Amino acid sequence: MFEISEKKKLAQDVYSVWVEAPKIAAHAQPGQFVIVIAEEEGERIPLTIVDKTEDKIRLIFQVVGKSTKKMATFENGDSFAHVVGPLGNPSEIDYYGTVLLIGGGIGVAPILPILKALKEKGNRVISIMGARTGDLLILEDEFSQLSDKLIVTTDDGSKGMKGLVTDGMKKVVSDGEKIDKAWAIGPVIMMKFATKTAQELGFPIIVSLNPIMVDGTGMCGGCRVTVGDSVKFACVDGPEFEGELVEWDELLKRLGQYKVEEKESLEEKKK
Ligand code: FES
Question: Which domain holds residue 69?
Fold first, then answer.
């Protein structure tokens, strides 16, 4: 159970694996995630289900701390101790017209199943993929095959358009596209500014707050976020929310606190 196959390095510190998990594969829908516990007693890592077959699910992860570093050492034939899911609410997939999908960094991975499902519903889909540099871009082939139009942005201009995903969003609209709905997934700061830009450009945007989860099951409170006037847990109430209702500054402040602990944990592991 949970045996790994087809492990592939997609970019520096970013890996794709297929994991044998027939029960999860049977029920998984776009937008949902699993919790991976690589070794007994290990940390719980929430990861979006990027793709599936009848008996396997595809996961993509980035090495950011000690648990993901451990996960990266697993090879084909090794097995994760536990994979729990599918968790969270599925994305609301429907026919909207023209949809803009925005993925930043590793956030491109959870966008992929949404892209596939929106295309199946007959939407015209424009995708924007952003990364710091060209060699950090992932899944470009899949995105260019499935999207009606693809814009790549890099901070340093080493690939595609030089700039941020928000510059790509402005370009799409100035090129005359009328966007009916958008999704943005990536670092929290990127989703904050993608939301601001969508508001300025006049279209609704959905964000996925899976980067802020800890245990993923409503127990730890780590993923709490103020949405509109109420406190929500991203793992059980989300992970997707309307971007304009999220209290971004409060969220960014709390995430800053976790960073210190994560760094300490990684330093501890090196000793
Ligand atoms: Fe712990 Fe949601 S991640 S309550």
Answer: 4-87
